[in-house]
């Protein structure tokens, strides 16, 4: 059996989450930090970890410094409709490594692959080197 996450609904749009990996209980409420925010945060964390892992398997460091994800809900507010994903890298990468990082971002993340294929995802990649900053779609 896989990992177990214990979630207790405490009423009035509030839940508490506890896993065997954390000592403190994480609290989620619909006002400050919604379950959708938690899902998107999990996606961003998984995305950065996955890209770094895939790069290290190929023998280089990815140094993903930041991931920002904006999302929009469907018209009836029942599901995520779209995500805009911005990944920021630091380091000198040739075009081959940039393409590798971008492909890994889009295809290897377990959380991203678990999301509905109906969610429209757009990716933008930013690379910062010692001498310049550049943007790729």
TrEMBL record:
It comes from the Bacteria. SUPFAM superfamilies: OsmC-like (SSF82784). InterPro entries: KH_dom-like_a/b (IPR015946), OsmC/Ohr_fam (IPR003718), OsmC/Ohrsf (IPR036102). Gene3D superfamilies: 3.30.300.20. This is Osmotically inducible protein OsmC. It comes from Aquimarina muelleri.
């Amino acid at each position: 059996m896989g990992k177990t996450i214990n979630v207790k609904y405490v009423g009035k749009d509030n839940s508490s989450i506890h896993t065997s990996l954390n000592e403190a209980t994480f609290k989620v409420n619909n006002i400050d930090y919604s379950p959708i925010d938690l899902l998107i945060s999990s996606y961003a964390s998984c995305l950065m970890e996955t890209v770094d892992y895939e790069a290290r398997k190929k023998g280089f460091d990815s140094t993903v410094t930041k991931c920002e994800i904006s999302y929009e809900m469907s018209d009836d507010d029942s599901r995520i409709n779209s995500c805009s994903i911005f990944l920021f890298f630091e380091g000198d990468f040739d075009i081959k490594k940039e393409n590798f990082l971008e492909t890994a971002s889009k295809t290897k993340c377990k959380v991203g692959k678990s999301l509905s294929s109906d969610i429209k995802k757009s990716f933008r990649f930013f690379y910062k080197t010692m001498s310049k900053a550049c943007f790729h779609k």
